[in-house]
Amino acid sequence: MKKILAAVCGVALIASTVAAQVSLQQEPSAHRSAEGCEPITPIPQAPLADSKKLPLGERLFGDTRLSADGTFACASCHDVGTNGADGTKGRSNASEMLDTLTVFNAPLSFRLTWEGRIRTLAEQAEASIANPNNMHSSVSEVILRLKDDPATNRMFRAAYGHDVDSDSVLDAIVTFERSLLTPGSRFDRWLGGDTSALTPAELDGYRTFKAFGCSSCHQGVNVGANLLAQQGIFRPLVMRGPTSVRVPSLRNVAETAPYFHDGSAATLEAAVRRMAASQLNRTLTDDQVASLVAFLKTLTGNYRGKPVSGGSP
Known about the structure:
Elements (H helix, E strand, L loop, with lengths): L1 H18 L3 E2 L6 E3 L2 E3 L14 H9 L12 H4 L43 H10 L8 H9 L2 H11 L5 H12 L8 H6 L8 H12 L15 E4 L13 E3 L21 H13 L5 H11 L5 E2 L2 E2 L6
Helix pairs in contact: 2-7, 4-7, 9-11, 10-11
């Protein structure tokens, strides 16, 4: 019976994705919840990590020595103390000033960056270090700076059995980033069978989310981030930028304003209206917007036992 149910879920998801005219890159997963076959699955707990590599990776994530001028770190744009981003436009593209994507749940994405050009966390870390618009350095230069610090070198020897090198720098950062999952949202609890986790209004918002076809692109464990799609199918969504983008994850979306790759939607309500008009050719009523936003707010998970919170305005 479970195999039959899973097959039915998979067929339904693939059919809805084709109907939405998107390019599916990874088969979405289905989940059986209080309502049966669902297009979204719960976030798992973070994988067990080496007790020496994890703190080393966290230290490197906040280390400004990764940048050429010694003033910029991964954490400068990706504040894990708030929403995994900084709430402002990052420096990843000087000409277009793409909005900063949250680092939370990035390990669950099939590709990284707005345009989906990067496939692995290690590749992303190396590219960020080399990017002339932020760190403007290189892993080899970083190694020279870290080797000058006896305390850091001792941490590498304890974790990897040798002095700092390229592979260990990237592996330590990736080890930390793999820990940046945010399980335990109220929606995930509902998926796990806790029927009291959602209010009737929030559950109605989820039904609307599915009925309008939002789950054709925003599905799977990350509620998105597993396919590329054309933005602005029926009318323009944003004024500039790439026409094809990696569908962003909606995990913690209530805490990651502003929205879209240009950061042009200041509120979740505004983003929902524009998405419906541009991608679904729908004009939503105030009640429908409120219903969808109520559901989206249930996707806020927890990091280190505390709910993810919004960054700077």
